[in-house]
Amino acid sequence: MSVIIDEAKCGKIENCPGEGLCIKLCEKGALEEGDGQVIIIDEKCDDCEICIQNCPNQAISKK
Fold it and tell me: Where would I find the 4Fe-4S ferredoxin-type domain in this sequence (predicted)?
């Protein structure tokens, strides 16, 4: 299982109070920046939920 990002809540990295905190915290490299947005690399996600727990906008959840 992987995560999904609610783009309406996320507001892109430029509007994130954590300045892309989810990307910085992901030890597996499953979250990357692409064109100012957070991109999920499903095959790298190990379901640790660190991104879910630390998203300041509560924009990340499980599929």
Answer: 36-63
